[in-house]
Amino acid sequence: MELFSFDLYLSGLHFFTNPLMYVASFFGVLVGVVFGALPGLTATMTIAVFIPFTFGLAPTISFAFLLGLYSGAVYGGSISAILINIPGTPSAIATSLDGYPMSQQGRAGEAIGISTISSTIGGFLSVIVLMFAAPAIASVALKFSAEEYVGITLIGLSVIAIISPGSTVKGLISGVFGLVIGIVGIDPITGFPRFIMGRAELLEGIDSIPVMIGMYGLSEMLVQISDVQYSIVVKQKISKLIPPLKDLKRILGTVIRSSFIGVIIGALPAAGGSIASLVAYGQEKRFGKRRDELGTGIIEGVAAPEAANNASTGGALIPMLTLGIPGDAMTAVLMGGLIIQGLRPGPLLFQQQMPFVSSIFISLLLSVVFMCIIGLVGAKYFAKLIGFPKKYLIPAILVFCLVGSYAISNSIFDIWVLILSGIVGFVMRKLSFPIAPIVLGMILGPLFESNFRRSLMLSEGNWATFVQRPISLGFLIVVVLVLVGPMILKRFNKVIIRGN
Amino acid sequence: MKKLVLVALVLVLALPVFASGAQESAAEAYPSRNVRVIIPWTVGGMTDVLTRPVASYLEKHFGVPFVVENKPGGSGVVGSLEIENSKNDGYVIGTTSMSTVSAKYVSPVYPDIHNVELISQVITIPATVTVNADSKFKTLDDLLAYAKANPGKVTNANSGAGASAHIYGVYFESMAGIKVNHIPYAGYVEAVTALLGGHVDMTNIPLPDVSAHIDSGDLRLLAIASAERHPSYPDVPTLRELGIEAVMGNYSGFVAPKGTDPEKVRAIDEAIGLAMQDPALRKFLIDAGYQPVYLNRTQFAEVITDAEKQLDFLVNDLGISFVDD
Amino acid sequence: MTRKRSDIIAGIVLFALAGLLFIVAGFMPTRQGSVQALNTGFYPRMLAVIMAVLSVLLVLETVRKQGQEARQMAPWWKTKSAFTMFLATLVLLVLYPFVMRLFGFASASFLFITALVWLLTEKGQAKPVKILGIAAAITLVVYIVFKLVLAIPFPMGLLI
Question: How much of chain A, in percent, has pLDDT values that exceed 90?
Answer without folding.
Answer: 41
